[in-house]
Design goal:
The protein is mainly beta. The chain contains one helix and seven strands; from the N terminus they run βββββββα.
Length: 115
Amino acid sequence: MPKTINHKLKTKMQTLHITKNAILDSTKRLKNSTNGNPRYSFNFDGLGISGTNQSDAGWIYGITPSNLEGMPVTVEFHHTKSGRVVIDSVELIKVKRNGKLLSERETLELIRKHN
């Protein structure tokens, strides 16, 4: 008689990444990852969320988090199974003037000028 093999179906729930516009309220530098890469805590006004970037996330090198405080940003994040919020990216909202996309520096200057 052949042996019956029980197969367990393992379903892996895909992580839902959420993208929202918000004001970056504050940032805090945390202890580096075990590989020596920077980690930050982010708090967003109007979203009611705060979270940290993943350890060894390369995108963090493309921004200076403290320079974006008080600025309108697009944030992408997801929740872990334990309910923790992981920030996947933070970008300054892109602004066009006279049909031309402004650089990050020009956008920051324009926003600061009008605040």
